[in-house]
Amino acid sequence: MAVLDELKLSHRLHISKLIIEVDSQVALKMITKQIKAPWQLDDIIRQIFHILHNLDYMILLTSREGNKLADFLANVGCDDQCNRSYDCSSLPKFARGIHKVDKLSCMYLGVS
Question: Start and end of every RNase H type-1 domain (predicted)?
Fold first, then answer.
């Protein structure tokens, strides 16, 4: 679960205030203890709870379109099988475009 990786990173960077956005209602409900996680995710959810215990945080549900940049970067990480950190100036070209659209608060249209 990507949330755990990001929480570990924020912990290493000593970031104690977070807004966590997830695009899965099921993940949101597991993290907020509204539903029990399947046994396969017990260890991950337990680690998430442990890190969140000492943080000032808010968890929000976002649409997949609203999570487009994070989704793109996660796919880049999976494809390259590496962990990288980016700032706005070092984003891959396509990601910079997504970021610009996000800053303009433009609506995404998906065509299939």
Answer: 2-75
Between CA 68 and CA 12 the distance in angstroms is 25
Q: How confident is the model at residue 106 (pLDDT cuts 50, 70, 90)?
A: low
Compute the Cα dihedral for 78, 49, 102, 110 and give only its sign: positive
Q: Domain extents for the chain?
A: 2-61, 65-103
Query: What average pLDDT does the structure give for the chain?
Result: 80
Structural element, H or E, at residue 21: strand 17-22
Q: What is the pTM of this model?
A: 0.62
Q: DSSP string covering 80-96, please?
A: HTS-----GGGS-HHHH
H/E stretch holding 57: strand 56-61
Closest by alpha carbon to 67, among 104, 10, 21, 107?
A: 21
Query: Residue 79 has what pLDDT?
Result: 67
